[in-house]
């Protein structure tokens, strides 16, 4: 498979570390914009059919992985965020990309969504190249960024309707699609309230509805439960799982909550310092560590957190991330909470 090596094969040196996890609302609009892209020519109209799993193309056969990253690298100045990432996400699975702040998860996600270029390596989404076929990739995605994308001055219905227009959902189907998306996340009764009156969990569910209104084949969630209490976290995941069960869509989620990944993900990749350090089902990873080290003191298998600490070794400490990571996380948590 040919790799894109734009920029001489070296990771991009643009922006700053603060670029990871900032400008979410603007970036989200870019990722889902269905307009004309200079690199792709005029965009084809978004599908308006009833298929809740989104449009299928010849390139998106059952045997095609939802996401493939090969040698993906990206740097902010002298800081390498993603370092030769190798990753495959299977069609229809819930895949967790795990790691501490600063591991490179959000940068990788932004390359997959085409919010960032692919300066070294290759990214494909259902067979479409993220560099040469950006508009085709964007039409397949629903994206919930870590930072809030809902407008507090609009009602829930107005927020989802706005995204329906951005996604180019046809006018004749727009109202029905908006209603379906709100119903899917159990917000029908609150649809005509201002978003600023919503609880943190309701806001996250609203953003999920915004991403679902285009009936994507791939739903990408960047830290979807950050800043939420345990009950709200569970509620968000229940709605994610319900939508996935109903549509068969693929879900790619980043999180640093190991318990969530253990419970909800089919497979997980443990990412540290820009690279995938381990890949498998939660049971496979926990069993593997248990076989190497034995069970825990109470006779149970190790947790995913135990697995991650074993893989990262002394590199996993309070030095993970930087000031911008902490600031971004606290800002999101305060707005959601």
Describe this structure in words.
By secondary structure, this protein is α/β, with parallel strands linked by helices. Helix content is 36%, strand content 18%. It has eleven helices and ten strands. It has a six-stranded mixed beta sheet with strand order 6-7-8-3-9-10, with helices on both faces. The radius of gyration is 19 Å and the shape is globular. Mean pLDDT is 78; it is low at 1-61, 316-330 and 333-337.
Helices and strands in order:
Layout: H1 24-32, E1 67-76, E2 79-89, E3 94-98, H2 105-112, E4 120-125, E5 128-129, H3 134-139, E6 141-144, H4 156-166, H5 171-184, H6 200-212, E7 218-222, H7 230-247, E8 250-255, H8 258-264, E9 267-272, E10 275-280, H9 282-293, H10 304-312, H11 323-336
Helix pairs in contact: 4-5, 4-6, 5-6, 6-7, 9-10
Features:
337 residues, alpha/beta, four-stranded antiparallel β-sheet
Largest sheet composition: 6 strands, mixed
Q: N-to-C SSE series?
A: HEEEHEEHEHHHEHEHEEHHH
Shape: globular
Q: Which structural class fits the helix and strand makeup?
A: alpha/beta
Percent range of helical residues: 25-40%
How many domain regions? 1
The third-level CATH topology is: Rossmann fold
CATH class: Alpha Beta
Strand content: 15-25%
CATH architecture: 3-Layer(aba) Sandwich
Count of alpha/pi helices: 11
Total strand count, please? 10
**Radius of gyration of CA atoms, rounded to a whole number:** 19 Å
- The CATH homologous superfamily name equals P-loop containing nucleotide triphosphate hydrolases
